[in-house]
Design goal:
Shape: globular
Distance between the termini: 36 Å
Helix content: 25-40%
Largest sheet: 4 strands, antiparallel
Number of strands: 8
Radius of gyration: 22 Å
Strand content: 15-25%
Order of helices and strands: EEHHEHEEEEHHEHHH
């Protein structure tokens, strides 16, 4: 994470814009375990006896989890829940909204609170240059000059936009109107709740992985969020996670 000190470009209330290159994802609550998959699946043949799976070691039934994943019996993977607190640029959240099935979102509101001046600037590892034709392109490393230009131009633009926002607020303009001058590089925060099946679908589209049977080409910033969500989920449901990878990272 990079952050600038206060300088002459501080906003009218004395708050200086800061600049980040990293997103953050916190697992705030969950009800998710491999055993959730097993009792949900075994009700098909065992009825009420499937509740016994709650007290058993899921390791003994990892073959069933792999079978369900391989043959795409998806509903047993829905009987769990994970809630994440995500801090990322607004443009990342706009991509998130394409994922609607099995997801719930609540984002901070620029109508009801004054938005803080925290903005996204790509880090040195972010590939800057897109080359190739639409539908068949790749991103490559930028030059030092391109990185310096990107940082300078973005930071200058962010400072000007936040000064305009503060000027409007100081003049009594409503927050819901004044926020229109702020860019999509502004950091926002949200709670995102999903189940394992919906998360697997998200990861299949929004991360690149050597075990993926179907290649994906996500924007790096939403992939950064996906990678952190994946790390949390892998600890909660290790057998399900292993089966997901072993079967091409395709959601069942």
């Amino acid at each position: 994470m990079s952050q600038t000190p206060a300088d002459s470009a501080a906003s009218p209330d004395g708050t200086a814009p800061s600049f980040r290159s990293e997103v953050s994802v916190e697992l705030v609550k969950h009800s998710a375990a491999d055993s959730d998959v097993l009792w949900a699946a075994r009700v098909s043949t065992a009825g009420e006896q499937s509740l016994e799976e709650l007290q058993k070691d899921p390791e003994r039934s990892k073959g069933l989890i792999n079978f369900l994943m391989r043959d795409r019996h998806g509903s047993p993977f829905e009987h769990n829940s994970m809630t994440f607190f995500v801090s990322a640029p607004i443009f990342v959240f706009r991509e998130f909204m394409r994922h609607r099935v099995g997801w719930s979102y609540n984002e901070e509101s620029g109508r009801y609170r004054q938005l803080e001046p925290v903005f996204y600037v790509p880090g040195e590892s972010r590939k800057l240059v897109q080359q190739g034709r639409p539908g068949k392109y790749e991103f490559v490393e930028g030059t030092r000059e391109q990185h310096e230009l990107t940082s300078r131009v973005m930071e200058d633009s962010y400072r000007r936009s936040y000064e305009a926002y503060q000027e409007m607020l100081a003049a009594g303009v409503a927050r819901e109107v004044a926020r229109a001058v702020l860019p999509v590089g502004l950091f926002s925060s949200m709670y995102a709740t999903c189940n394992a099946r919906s998360l697997m679908h998200f990861l299949g589209l929004r991360t690149q992985h050597e075990q993926a049977a179907v290649p994906s080409f996500p924007q790096r910033e939403i992939e950064m969020v996906g990678e952190q969500m994946e790390a949390h989920w892998a600890k909660l449901m290790p057998l399900t996670y292993a089966a997901f990878n072993a079967n091409g990272r395709i959601a069942p």
